[in-house]
Amino acid sequence: MEVSALLYIGIDLGTSAVKLLLMDEKGNIEKIVSREYPLMFPHPGWSEQNPEDWMDAVTDGVQELTKDCDRSLVAGIGAGGQMHGLVALDAQDHVLRPAILWNDGRTQEETDYLNEKIGREKLTEYTGNIAFAGFTAPKILWMKKHEPGLFAKIAKIMLPKDYINYMLSGVHCTDYSDASGMLLLDVKNRCWSRPMLEICGITMEQMPKLYESYETVGTLKPSMAQKLGLSEKVRIAAGAGDNAAAAIGTATVGDGACNISLGTSGTIFISSDGFRVDSGNSLHAFDHADGGYHLMGCMLSAASCNKWWMEEIIGTEDFPKEQEGITDEKLGRNHVYFLPYLMGERAPHNDPAARGCFIGLTMDSSRADMTQAVLEGVAFGIRDSLEAARKLGIDVQRSMICGGGAKSPLWKKIFADVLNMELDLPETEQGPGYGGAILAAVACGEYPTVKDAAQKLIRVTGSVKPDPEIAALYEKRYQTFRSLYPALKNLFPQMNE
């Protein structure tokens, strides 16, 4: 008698919508459902959401996702979620205020206080990272100062996907990868940092229990099981922050594995068996969902640079046609450079004042040269972060590449040549939700480790190899590129006055 395959639900709790997928034990995706929810901007630069809206969307989405399958086969649920957001609960576990999200910009004063008054060295000692406006700790300090009445009522501090897990299981929990982005976790030692909690005026009792991403935090509460039509035995995995979950979904696990994501922003994610911090704090040093660590560089404008150039400046939506004239003979020989800092920059410069620039224009510079410069500038920006990781002794030999920008054959080739590294293309690109489902499968004992699961389930459909001659030409161009930001750094603030 054939035994039916077990099913796993992966949740990708994003900023604009939740995406849910149903995966079988062999990694095949049976169904995908998404549900949108509102994003609120109560003041310029603020960004908030109601956690209850997330839960309504998840509940409705799971019901839709599982309506045509045998619900008794659903064994586990795992979530990857938007990082850094502050969810505050009172003693009755009611949400105290709308969640302050990762892209909320109200905390610059608090961020400066942490980096300058507490000091970057101390923060690095306590957490492995410096403060960014998007992190959770500055949000807590903001709430303490501006909403003292609500702050005094906080019984539990959680991250977005942890609220979902709490509602499903009744357990106040988080995982190490997501907690790494709070600036409250001692990343190296995988525990809450007491000095950071004291700085923020909060206690150990207010923090959720820490788990590895692949561990089971509990099972479905009876009321929730009934609501969803699922068994009370369904296991809830701790899950992961969205970047770590997406890395699992591209098999970026183990020492030296790498993934480059070319979305609106660009990230390079490098997994590592050991804990490392670069001296300039240009890369985030976080725990990984596979039980190890990772370094991550995030550039604020990646595919969005190309979109801006094509749609806003040139005025076309035919991206492939625009790239037709950029042949191999032109690669590595462009005299035009583009600095991709249209929204300031995170990694490796951490400079909100930085701005985008075209440099090297002459009378014979063409439209195609400028298009090529945009594509090259983003690749050079990612290489900046790669070099920061290499300085720490991490040996990166090849990388996955995914995201909307990776659909361009030309851009993939430019990346392979600029990085002088072979790039692999994943068969399925479902991001954090797929990683969440894999974590659920590990939590249920389907696979012994995350690494084992990822390597068995993630398939590569093709690779792009660097051309040695073009890579050598790009090496010279990159050395010029990396000298441009330092030359302009002091001018950027003047441009913004």
General description of the model:
The protein has two domains: 237 residues, ATPase, nucleotide binding domain (Nucleotidyltransferase, domain 5); 209 residues, ATPase, nucleotide binding domain (Nucleotidyltransferase, domain 5). The radius of gyration is 23 Å and the shape is globular. The model has no long low-confidence stretch (mean pLDDT 95). The strands form seven sheets. Strands 1, 2, 3, 5, 13, 14 and 15 form a seven-stranded mixed β-sheet that branches. Helix 9 packs across helix 14. The relative contact order is 0.13. It is built from 17 helices and 24 strands. The chain is an alpha/beta fold and 497 residues long.
For this entry, give a set of tags.
Nucleotidyltransferase, domain 5, 497 residues, single chain, 2 domains, 17 helices, alpha/beta
CATH class of the largest domain: Alpha Beta
Let me know the average pLDDT.
95
CATH architecture descriptor of the largest domain:
2-Layer Sandwich
The gross shape turns out to be globular
| Main beta-sheet annotation | 7 strands, mixed
Number of helices: 17
- The fold-level CATH name of the largest domain is Nucleotidyltransferase, domain 5
CATH superfamily caption of the largest domain: ATPase, nucleotide binding domain
What is the count of structural domains? 2
- Using only CA atoms, what is the Rg? 23 Å
Class inferred from helices and paired strands:
alpha/beta
Fraction of residues in H or I helices: 25-40%
Q: Give the tally of β-strands.
A: 24
